[in-house]
């Protein structure tokens, strides 16, 4: 089952971004991940708090592949740069529609 990773990013500095994009994109793609969106065009329609400065949406072939990426040795230093240069959230969402279970 496909799995989606959603990154909500608010930057405290941008010094890490170019190196991150250059090196993490191939790591994601090597595992079969596909970037569906990397954008600062974000609008909060409901809920509390503000919109993040940037949202990243990645489709992975499965949750196992997404976790393999997130916990890989290759990603570790870039994950640290992301955490040191921004704050936000990184969320995994299973590509399962529970409404279909009701039909």
Automatic annotation (TrEMBL):
<dbReference type="InterPro" id="IPR011008">
    <property type="entry name" value="Dimeric_a/b-barrel"/>
</dbReference>
<dbReference type="InterPro" id="IPR010753">
    <property type="entry name" value="DUF1330"/>
</dbReference>
<feature type="domain" description="DUF1330">
    <location>
        <begin position="2"/>
        <end position="95"/>
    </location>
</feature>
<dbReference type="Pfam" id="PF07045">
    <property type="entry name" value="DUF1330"/>
</dbReference>
<protein>
    <submittedName>
        <fullName>Uncharacterized conserved protein, DUF1330 family</fullName>
    </submittedName>
</protein>
